[in-house]
């Protein structure tokens, strides 16, 4: 570097050290003034430059670019109007000044070094971007090309052609900042996001996405989503892309499933939006997702809960009604038939009361599982509530199919259940109704099945009955009947009558069976076979039962007081299943006996064979409690239920009442004497007293005598008589 140039460097440095404030500018101006040519001289040189720069200035005058010429010392010899405007200086202020003083201090050294190189390179040129400071202190970025035209006689200087790129740079910087913000928004976004190309291949995936699906970014990039998508949902993804590409939708929102790397299935909500260029062409897809697995699971649980019974997990009424409505609409449209079956557990209350509600719940669950096993895929099984289940059988070929379905359900309950370590027999009754296009309300189907169910119960439980329209009127009548029966209980229209029980050997009266009689003011005598089953459908049966018990015990007590022959008489009272399973039973019996000072061996409790065998462990439990009190019981209607000799031996009833169908066999159902004889001898082997019901003829009496049957009752002696007539009968007797 020459000493001249060094001098220049110092000069430039000195200039550049001056801060680019207005004040310093004026300082530097004054200092540069002192070093530059006087104004007049500058004007004078302008005069000569007009000729020298004729061509150049012509261009510069109207150019949008900055154009200036500096001499080898950096002094400005020409500046076009836009340059002067950019720097905020007048022509006088600008020409003749040191160009370096307009440079940003940080750029001075570098620019000067390059300037030195340039002036040593004839015709050479350099390209640079420099920061300058205008008169009002503004920093402007100038892109420039400096050309050495020192050798050019016309110019004899360095031509600096510049362009103010301040705004452009600012814009680029803003864009960069925006991109950075966007990058951060993408990469750090909590929402899983991916960018895919037009083939849906992933070219960017954020951390949240990788975490969500459990694959690394490397594993994800370059793939389309197929390898991660649940196979069934690949179509959804492709469809959404195609619809956007075809321009059918602006963006699309859908739910799909991914299979995570760990194999877990997740649900995601996807928002796919295309990024477009200015002409609207799709460049790539911006896909943002949301893991909704938990929400889905919760929603699924909630909807499951809304449509299912929490105890058994079976469908509930709401779901059943829905299916029923669909089935109804389907047959109206396409024809065909369906059936509604209402299944009610027989005497379930007994299990609940004796083994507790937990055991009851457990039994319900077991029953549900058994029924579920025999439920066809096209059918619907639901828990209707309590111990009732509904079954919708669809696609029947014939009404008879409905009966087959009922049998299948009943058969499923044949085997014993084990609940809380106890063996429980749980049978059921079913009411069946077959679809009918004339039925407009779906609720009617359930109602009809309910009516048929009642018939099934009335006919002895453990069976199914098909609804017939006539049953409907019967149901209405029954409802009315129960209402009136309730009134009768209080009005005195309900009375107990007593049928003598005879020692067949001596024909002495040994006791009376209390039988309920209802004299209806309009209907006249209503048989117990009609009103007892009706009452059994409600709690009314308990009131009736205890009424019978109190009346009978009171009656027996009064006979003993008024008639000598009544000293050893017993009274036999029928108990319904509901009553037998009533937890209050034992204490009520105790109280009633105490109230009337009747000894315990003077009361016999009758329960039917079917009630006894329905739940053997429960029966044993009640019987043990009763025998501890010294009360015996009789098995009523023996031979009509599902006899099991082993149970009979276990339960040890005192008396077996052989059903009248064995005593006076009907023509259609002949039972021979051998059967009757066998039953009687069997009872004797088990140490039980045998009683024959329904003896109407002397011939029957003789046969029974010959078989060794001890007791009997029947019209041969007397039907049931009013309480007031008992003392006379006792006194009269038959001996
Ligand atoms: P059950 O306990 O087997 O009563 C015997 C039934 O046979 C009685 O019918 C009686 O009148 C009838 N009977 C007696 N001897 C003869 C005969 O020689 N020939 C014929 N054909 N029948 C005879 P009833 O009084 O109509 O009672 C029917 C059923 O109603 C009873 O059968 C019993 O299960 C029930 N019932 C009657 N009173 C009560 C009661 O107070 N409580 C309960 N829970 N049930 C009762
Ligand atoms: Mg009886
Ligand atoms: Mg009987």
Number of domains: 4
Q: Which spans of ≥5 residues are poorly predicted at pLDDT below 50?
A: 1-47
Outline, from the CA principal axes?
rod-shaped
Look up the CATH topology of the largest domain: TIM Barrel
Going by CATH, the homologous superfamily of the largest domain would be: EAL domain
Radius of gyration: 55 Å
Descriptive report:
This protein is an alpha+beta fold and 735 residues long. It folds into four domains: 3-170, PAS domain (Beta-Lactamase, 2-Layer Sandwich), CATH 3.30.450; 189-296, Beta-Lactamase, CATH 3.30.450.20; 308-467, Alpha-Beta Plaits (2-Layer Sandwich); 480-732, TIM Barrel, CATH 3.20.20. It contains 29 helices and 27 strands. β8 and β9 form a beta hairpin. It is rod-shaped. The model is unreliable at 1-47 (pLDDT under 50). It binds ligand C2E and magnesium ion (2 copies). Residues 513, 574, 606, 636 line the site of one magnesium ion.
Provide tags for this entry:
735 residues, alpha+beta, Beta-Lactamase, Alpha-Beta Plaits, eight-stranded mixed beta barrel, five-stranded antiparallel sheet, disordered N terminus, binds ligand C2E, binds magnesium ion
Structure, briefly:
The chain is an alpha+beta fold and 735 residues long. It has four domains: 3-170, Beta-Lactamase; 189-296, Beta-Lactamase; 308-467, Reverse transcriptase/Diguanylate cyclase domain (Alpha-Beta Plaits, 2-Layer Sandwich); 480-732, Alpha-Beta Barrel (TIM Barrel).
Element layout with pairings:
Blueprint: H1 3-17, H2 22-35, H3 39-52, H4 54-62, E1 66-70, E2 76-79, H5 81-87, H6 91-94, H7 105-119, E3 125-133, E4 139-149, E5 157-164, H8 166-187, E6 193-196, E7 202-205, H9 207-213, H10 217-220, H11 234-245, E8 252-259, E9 265-276, E10 282-291, H12 293-307, H13 317-334, E11 337-345, H14 348-355, H15 357-373, E12 380-385, E13 388-396, H16 399-412, E14 417-419, E15 422-424, E16 428-434, H17 442-458, E17 464-466, H18 469-491, E18 494-503, E19 509-520, E20 524-526, H19 528-536, H20 540-562, E21 570-574, H21 577-580, H22 585-595, E22 603-608, H23 609-614, H24 616-628, E23 632-638, H25 645-651, E24 655-658, H26 660-663, H27 673-685, E25 689-692, H28 698-707, E26 711-712, E27 721-722, H29 726-732
Parallel strand pairs: 16-17, 19-21, 21-22, 22-23, 23-24, 24-25, 25-26
Antiparallel strand pairs: 1-2, 1-5, 3-4, 4-5, 6-7, 6-10, 8-9, 9-10, 11-13, 11-16, 12-13, 14-15, 18-19, 18-26, 18-27, 19-20
One magnesium ion is lined by residues 636-637, 657, 693.
């Amino acid at each position: 570097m020459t000493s001249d140039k060094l001098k220049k460097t110092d000069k430039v440095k000195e200039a550049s050290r001056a801060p680019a404030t207005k004040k310093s500018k004026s300082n530097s101006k004054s200092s540069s003034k002192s070093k530059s040519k006087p104004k007049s001289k500058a004007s004078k040189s302008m005069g000569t430059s007009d000729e020298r720069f004729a061509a150049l200035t012509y261009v510069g005058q109207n150019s949008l670019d900055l154009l200036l010429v500096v001499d080898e010392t950096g002094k400005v010899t020409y500046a076009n109007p836009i340059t002067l405007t950019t720097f905020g200086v007048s022509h006088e202020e600008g020409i003749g000044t040191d160009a370096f003083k307009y440079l940003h201090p940080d750029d001075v050294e570098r620019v000067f070094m390059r300037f030195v190189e340039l002036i040593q390179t004839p015709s050479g040129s350099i390209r640079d971007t420099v920061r300058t400071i205008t008169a009002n202190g503004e920093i402007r970025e100038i892109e420039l090309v400096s050309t050495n035209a020192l050798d050019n006689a016309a110019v004899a200087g360095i031509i600096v052609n510049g362009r103010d790129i301040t705004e452009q740079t600012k814009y680029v910087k803003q864009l960069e900042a925006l991109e950075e913000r966007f990058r951060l928004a993408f990469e750090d976004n909590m929402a899983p996001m991916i960018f895919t190309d037009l083939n849906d291949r992933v070219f960017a995936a954020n951390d949240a996405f990788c975490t969500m699906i459990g694959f690394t970014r490397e594993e994800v990039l370059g793939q389309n989503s197929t390898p991660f998508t649940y196979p069934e949902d690949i179509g959804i993804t492709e469809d959404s892309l195609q619809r956007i590409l075809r321009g059918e939708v602006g963006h699309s929102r859908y739910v799909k499933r991914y299979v995570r790397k760990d194999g877990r299935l997740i649900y995601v909500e996807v928002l796919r939006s295309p990024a477009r260029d200015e002409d609207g062409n799709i460049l790539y897809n911006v896909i943002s997702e949301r893991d909704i697995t938990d929400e889905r699971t919760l929603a699924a649980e909630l909807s499951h809960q809304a449509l299912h019974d929490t105890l058994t997990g079976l469908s509930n009424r709401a779901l059943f009604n829905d299916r029923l409505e669909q089935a109804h609409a389907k047959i109206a449209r396409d024809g065909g038939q369906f059936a509604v079956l209402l299944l009610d557990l027989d005497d379930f209350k007994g299990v609940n009361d004796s083994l507790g509600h937990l055991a009851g719940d457990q039994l319900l669950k077991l029953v549900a599982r058994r029924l579920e096993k025999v439920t066809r895929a096209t059918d619907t099984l639901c828990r209707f509530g309590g111990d009732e289940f509904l079954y919708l059988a669809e696609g029947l070929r014939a009404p008879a199919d409905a009966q087959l379905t009922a049998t299948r359900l009943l058969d499923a309950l044949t085997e014993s259940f084990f609940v809380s370590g106890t063996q429980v027999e749980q049978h059921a009754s079913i009411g069946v109704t077959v679809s009918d296009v004339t039925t407009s309300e779906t609720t009617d189907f359930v109602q009809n099945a309910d009516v048929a169910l009642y018939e099934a119960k009335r006919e002895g439980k453990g069976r199914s009955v098909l609804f017939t329209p006539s049953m409907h009127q019967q149901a209405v009548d029954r409802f009315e009947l129960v209402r009136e029966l309730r009134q009768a209980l209080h009005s005195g229209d309900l009375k107990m009558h007593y049928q003598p029980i005879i020692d067949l050997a001596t024909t002495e009266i040994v006791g009376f069976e209390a039988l309920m009689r209802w004299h209806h003011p309009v209907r006249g005598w209503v048989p117990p076979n009609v009103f007892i089953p009706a009452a059994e459908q409600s709690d009314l049966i308990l009131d009736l039962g205890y009424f019978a018990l109190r009346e009978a015990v009171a009656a027996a007590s009064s006979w003993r007081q008024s008639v000598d022959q009544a000293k050893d008489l017993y009274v036999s009272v029928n108990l319904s299943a509901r009553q037998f399973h009533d937890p209050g039973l034992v204490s009520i019996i105790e109280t009633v006996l105490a109230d009337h000072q009747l000894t315990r061996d003077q009361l016999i409790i009758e329960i039917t064979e079917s009630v006894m065998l329905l739940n053997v462990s429960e029966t044993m439990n009640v019987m043990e409690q009763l025998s501890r009190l010294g009360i015996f019981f009789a098995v009523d209607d023996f031979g009509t239920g599902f006899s099991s000799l082993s149970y009979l031996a276990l339960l040890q009833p005192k008396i077996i009442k052989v059903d009248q169908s064995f005593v006076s066999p009907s023509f259609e159902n002949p039972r021979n004497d051998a059967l009757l004889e066998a039953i009687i001898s069997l009872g004797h082997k088990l140490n039980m007293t045998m009683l024959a019901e329904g003896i109407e003829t002397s011939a029957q009496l003789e046969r029974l005598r010959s078989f060794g049957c001890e007791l009997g009752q029947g019209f041969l002696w007397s039907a049931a008589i009013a309480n007031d007539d008992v003392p006379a009968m006792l006194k009269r007797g038959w001996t």
